[in-house]
TrEMBL record:
UniProt-listed Enzyme Commission number(s): 5.1.3.3
Claim: Cell division is one of the keywords in the record: no
Stored InterPro entries: Aldose_1/G6P_1-epimerase (IPR008183), Gal_mutarotase_sf_dom (IPR011013), Galactose_mutarotase-like (IPR047215), GH-type_carb-bd (IPR014718)
Gene Ontology terms: biological process: galactose catabolic process via UDP-galactose, Leloir pathway; glucose metabolic process
Any Pfam family matching the protein: Aldose_epim
Organism (species): Paracoccus denitrificans (strain Pd 1222)
GO molecular function: aldose 1-epimerase activity; carbohydrate binding
Keywords: Carbohydrate metabolism, Isomerase
Similarity remark: Belongs to the aldose epimerase family.
Protein name (record): Aldose 1-epimerase
Amino acid sequence: MMPRKFGMLPDGRPVMQATISGHGLTASIITLGASLQDLRLSGVGHSLVLGFPRLEPYLDEGRYFGAVVGRHANRIAHGRAVIDGQDLQLDRNQDGRHLLHGGHDGCGTRNWMLADWDESSVALADYLPAGHMGFPGAMLIRATWSILPGPTLMLTILATSDEATFCNFAQHSYFNLDGAETVSDHRLAIPAETYLPVDGDMIPLGDPAPVQGTHLDFRAPVALGERLGGPRIDHNLCVSSRRRIMPRKVAMLRAGGLMMSLRSTEPGLQVYPGEHLAPGAPGLNGRPYGRHAGIALESQLWPDAPNHADYPSALLGPGELYRQSTVMSFCRSPKG
């Protein structure tokens, strides 16, 4: 299917939608944020991700839904960092205090270019000039969504810069496998022994802490309904101490007779069960999304990495190639 116009931005630029399919899986990608707008599995009557049938909600309440966020995903404290002795003041788009997801004009809010597509794959590209959101280096980014046997949806992100800069991308879909109003009946497992404690602004306090005995212990499958009414969940789980060349398993999510296995090259997984979501525009299932309607599982580097020398590094040297793979595989599960 040829890409089609999904809507128009306020400045008149079109947002395009490309739909790819194969092996019983169908995914629709829009150029705004290179976002996964819809994901369907054959024989299942609802989308597996939260999304909207129209463009307008993506400009407001649906910001970051399904998007590829960066050039630095998650938070950088006070929007401040240092490269080669140079103090950087980055955009502070979180309450005027901290950088979030690359700033107010980060990749998750930008209209990417359609670079290439076929029946089972679509590639999108973005260009960030030097100084964009305070970051040094002109950066080229290419995000490719592909459907593979499994059925599997894979996202591959490549990036390069002509100067030393920070680089950390994440995929920001909210998953809901059973189509219910909340994800309380989902079971989540994450093989992480530690997590990053945070302050009231969700900025890491320092060293990782053990998950044992906390509400962030998902080493054995946990029903989310047991955790959603307790302490806030919006934390990085440390699944590794470094980035990997090949994706490794970072999470398993199961509900409604379906199971999703999530694999990634990234050492961190930000877990956020949509606490801020409030009913607004109708979603793909025809009803508005409320609190805990979906869960974001964001594979990325650890947040605020530029300000912690002992965290996996977000530094990308001039001419170096950043490569990230995030892999979502689906199957029927009799234990859903």
